[in-house]
Design goal:
With 397 residues, the chain is an alpha+beta fold. The protein is built from 12 helices and 17 strands. It is globular and about 70 Å long.
């Protein structure tokens, strides 16, 4: 089973990751991981940190001669923000000694983990919560998950995402999205993200991209923030991954968990999702056909039935809330004095949705990789690929 852990803070010296369960013999390089880290850094609406935030994960163990060994893979990512301001952050985030003259942060931001983290761990200020709950952690998450993404690519499974709604601006309905996204997905899901990456708001529609940029400009002037909705498409998945037998192994449930376990996510749906509750069954369910193999005439359920893949493209959507750090303050209460005050400003983006698409693409990869391992098994890529290809060939006969 593939699983990963991350450690580190937004302004700590580095982020650290450990990935275990990757079979031996998977070709892996730091350059491959950097591809998706670079994608995560891009997007209109970002703040000033983009100027010096250049992420690269360094492989410390678990890879020999460019191939995984089957041992845990250790990754390190130096935090350039920490390196850039060595007169300040090493003192603020010091691992030894006492607080001294380090400022206490006592004003929690509504919508952030500030207050609940302070209450849970009983810190003497909010800084540790700000540092660990920051979306900066997703840089290492993308690096860790890119390894599973490379594993999936060995089986012809591709993942691609795009923004379909940014604030009030977006596609009108499911059919409008399908009209543009499905022809791209027919070439493989990577065609979706490559088209989306040409837009600085990661939208595949040129006119909507322009309107989304204008919306971000407007909200920046207002001193507020924006969220939105993105869609992730996965192609190349065989039928039969997941389980209808056990609730905790249903693939849709596992996918929803990793999306909701990502910073700022407030909703997830598969296929038509919430829209399916607004109409009747003939507009929702996918009729079955047989033409040498079983398939579906439509894909409104997004490639999953009963928690199991159908062989159709997986279509998943996530909702990201507006960032809680805004130039225009909200009302809060000081955790020490209990006095009502306005929130303080921590440097932040106006809209992080285009970046969140890459994170969402990444975090679902280990879930899908584990589904492949569960069904086909093995300790090496050679072994797993042989079993996978043998079963796929048997199905064609």
């Amino acid at each position: 089973m593939i699983r990963y852990f991350t450690a580190g803070e937004s302004h700590g010296p580095e982020l650290t990751g450990i990935v275990e369960g990757i079979p031996a013999g998977l070709e892996l390089s730091e350059d491959y991981m950097e591809q998706h880290l670079v994608r995560r850094q891009k997007g209109y609406g970002r703040g000033g940190r983009m100027a010096f935030e250049k992420d690269r994960a360094i492989i410390k163990s678990g890879v020999r001669f460019s191939l995984t060994t089957g041992a845990p893979i250790a990754l390190s990512m130096v935090n350039l923000a920490f390196e850039k301001d060595k007169s300040n952050w090493p003192k603020v985030m010091a691992k030894d000694g006492k607080r001294g003259d380090v400022e206490k942060i006592t004003l929690p931001r509504p919508g952030h983990a500030d207050l609940v983290g302070y209450q849970k761990y009983r810190f003497d200020d909010i800084r540790p919560v700000i540092e660990r709950s920051s979306a900066r952690e997703t840089a290492m998450r993308v690096a860790c998950c890119s390894i599973s993404r490379k594993f999936l690519k060995s089986f012809g499974i591709e993942i691609g995402g795009h923004v379909i709604q940014l604030g009030p601006v977006g596609f009108n309905n499911w059919e409008a999205v399908r009209e543009q996204a499905d022809p791209l997905a027919e070439k493989g899901a990577e065609a979706v993200y490559k088209k989306a990456d040409k837009s600085d708001v990661r939208c595949i529609d040129k006119e909507l991209s322009h309107r989304m940029r204008e919306e971000i400009k407007m909200r920046r002037k207002d001193g507020t923030s924006l969220g939105g909705i993105y869609e992730i498409i996965v192609t190349g998945l065989p039928e039969g991954l997941g389980s209808y037998v056990h609730w905790d192994r249903k693939l849709d449930g596992l996918l929803a968990q990793v999306i909701m376990g990502t910073q700022a996510m407030k909703g997830v749906e598969i296929g038509l999702g919430f829209e399916s509750g607004k109409t009747h069954g003939h507009n929702v369910h996918d009729e079955i056909a047989y033409n040498g193999k079983f398939t579906r005439r439509t894909n409104r359920l997004g490639g999953l039935e009963g928690g199991v893949t159908t062989g159709m493209p997986l279509i998943l959507r996530g909702v990201m809330k507006p960032i809680p750090t805004m130039i225009k303050p909200l009302q809060t209460a000081d955790v020490e004095t209990k006095e009502q005050q306005e929130t303080r400003y921590e440097r932040s983006d106006v809209c992080a949705l285009p970046r969140a698409v890459v994170v969402a693409e990444s975090v679902i990869a280990p879930v899908l990789a584990n589904a492949i391992l569960e069904k086909f098994g093995g300790d090496s890529m050679e072994e797993i690929l042989a079993r996978y290809n043998r079963e796929r060939n048997d199905e064609k006969q």
